[in-house]
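One-letter codes give the sequence; the integers encode the fold. A sample entry reads:
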Amino acid sequence: MKILLLGKNGQVGWELRRTLAPLAEVTAVDYPEINFTDVPALRRLVADAHPDAVVNAAAYTAVDKAETEPELCRQINAIAPGVLAEEAKKIGALMVHYSTDYIFDGTKSSPYVETDVPNPLGAYGRSKLEGDQAVKASGADHLIFRLCWVYGARGQNFMLTMQRLAREREKLHVVGDQFGCPTWSRMIAETTALALKEILGCVDISACNGEYHLAASGQTSWHGFASGIIELLPETERKCRAVEKITTSEYPLPAKRPAYSVLDCGKLEKTFGLRLPDWEFSLRQVLDKP
């Protein structure tokens, strides 16, 4: 069995290299090996690799910067996934793609399910939604995993930023009126591998086609997440002694964020028997705390 992995150096892609290796022969690529805006190159890549599954972990994730370069964001998040899915369809390969909670507007007060109507608030969310739609329209067998508040021990993410700031400042001010599900990149990769192992062994792969919410159990605010991160830092390693709540309006950014983007992962559990642990448990694992 062969898997083509795109975005090997991203938070999720890095973990996927390890979790997919026992399942198949993995060809892993990223920029600049492949230009995600070069459509002919993407088509050749899939045709030459001729995999059983294409796993697309590549994405433009600079949410605020996307407001000033929406076309580049769209090329990577919408056009490229559609092209990859079209090529996967041609060779009968499964297409695995990652989406985001940012396709929702955050006006619900209960966890979002896969059938809720999308209404993205910014260029990033719109591009990701268009990518989801392109994958589905390709006709390829597909799994679209919708993620929320991804973090990990490498790359650029909220956890690493809070750790750095806690070592530099005595007091931090963090938004307390946006809620989501902090999800460890390794858990995403391991869940993907388990789902792939099951689906690639099915007689009728198409029976599992669709979107699945894939996020940690539980929910918290950015303030709650930051507090949890800093509490787990050893006293000797942190300067910060207080984390104060602020409102979204007190921390304006170019791109508007959904105020509530908690994801209901019941479909994932029902289909594959997979359920991620509580976000606090995962955070302790990342930081190797008992």
The chain has nine helices and twelve strands. The chain has a mean pLDDT of 95. The first strand starts at residue 2 and ends at 6. The CA atoms of residues 96 and 138 lie 13 Å apart.
